[in-house]
Amino acid sequence: MTLRNVGDLPVLPLPESFALTAAYNDDQFPNKVNLGQGVYRDNNCQPWVLPSVREAEETLHNQQVNHEYLPIAGDSKFLTKARQLLFGPQIASSAENISSLQTVAGTGANHLAALFCARNLCPKNVFISDPTWDNHHLIWEMAAPNVTQRLYPYYDPTTRGLNLDGMLAELESSAEDNDVVILHACAHNPTGIDPTREQWKKIAQVVRRKKLFVVFDCAYQGFASGNADADAWAIREFYSMLFTEELSSSSSSTPAGMFVCQSLSKNFGLYGERIGALHLIIPPWTSPEGAKAHLVQLVRAEISCPSLFGARIVHTVLDDAELCTKWQEDVRIMALRIKTVRALLKSELEKIGARGDWSHIEQQIGMFSFTGLSIAQVQELRERHHIYMLSNGRMSLSGLNETNVAYVAGAIRDVL
Ligand code: LMR
């Protein structure tokens, strides 16, 4: 084997969302606008520490907590609350077949899921939505290099809606037993288009028939509707349709399992604290112990055990009925503000006669708008107008407010 000279390694580009933030921070133009990274901003386009989180910080400060190691699987009190948030109290309290581990945010959960699948499930393919969060590709490339990445149709540019037929046809015709399919649980990144409840049921039926292993990525719970329970509907429905006791008689058509990658970064505004969880669901008539032990071993090799602060904050908020209600209100405020700027941008574009139909901006949901702007137009927005967004046309709407929306709309009209 030839030892490579690390000095010869080529320089790689930064992932786009981080490169955009760096470029925006360096930009000296006073009216610059950051619509790049998927992070919530308040009405002054500033980071927002949720009031419920601030209160939890004070509580923790007064408790004078220590800084001992957590167990490898994470803080069990945090995991109980995180599981309830995702699955609802009823499923969470009775489901022996859900194993949960604390992770380094949603990315860590996705990575752990990919590693586990590559080593233990050995799928031939992983099906990824076209388009998706760019990190899905990188994570699977790094953690599961022997698994072939395939795109399934998701976004239909002609209708600016979901291409459900294309998606189902691709899974029906190309997926094999135990292949993995990554689904965005809500507020799809980057398109802002989610399946309806009827469409989710059709997807679950194909998953069952083809015995696919779903990896749900749940990064934006609360951002689609303003309500965390409503946004977890698809996950709970898949659980009921695929993994409950009543199905045992038809166990031959049950997938081997399902992962849910849960981020608490966005809905608690704890971006830099890197807090998340991975939940493994297996059929109720199989034993979770072996799979859990293998996940624990992977965590031990990667990070030894997870970190404390984010878990403590989330647990403190969710464990206190009053604080939990305040947090639900915080989530509603964030979702509502984004909805409000959607409407503002659309009406501003229409008011100034920007060419085209802009109704999709208001119809899409969650943190993003998939604007339909081309790579060249996005580049021009950045170079001439100091407006930063992803080259695929994704706009992170929380960078907009009443003050800059007219400037952004004017710039869009200009580059069309
Ligand atoms: C995004 O999609 O912009 C965020 O999730 C940040 C990231 O990691 O890319």
From TrEMBL:
Record SUPFAM superfamilies: PLP-dependent transferases
Reactions accelerated catalytically: L-aspartate + 2-oxoglutarate = oxaloacetate + L-glutamate
UniProtKB keywords: Aminotransferase, Pyridoxal phosphate, Transferase
Assigned EC number: 2.6.1.1
A GO cellular-component term linked to this record: cytosol
Principal EC category: transferase
One GO process term, biological-process aspect: aspartate biosynthetic process
GO MF terms, alphabetically ordered: L-aspartate:2-oxoglutarate aminotransferase activity; pyridoxal phosphate binding
InterPro entries per record: Aminotransferase_I/II_large, Asp_trans, NHTrfase_class1_PyrdxlP-BS, PyrdxlP-dep_Trfase, PyrdxlP-dep_Trfase_major, PyrdxlP-dep_Trfase_small
Ranges where the Aminotransferase class I/classII large domain occurs: 31-412
Cofactor(s) the protein requires to work: pyridoxal 5'-phosphate
Subunit structure: Homodimer.
Additional comment: In eukaryotes there are cytoplasmic, mitochondrial and chloroplastic isozymes.
Entry's family note: Belongs to the class-I pyridoxal-phosphate-dependent aminotransferase family.
Protein known as: Aspartate aminotransferase
Native source species: Talaromyces pinophilus (Penicillium pinophilum)
Biological classification of the source: Eukaryota, Fungi, Dikarya, Ascomycota, Pezizomycotina
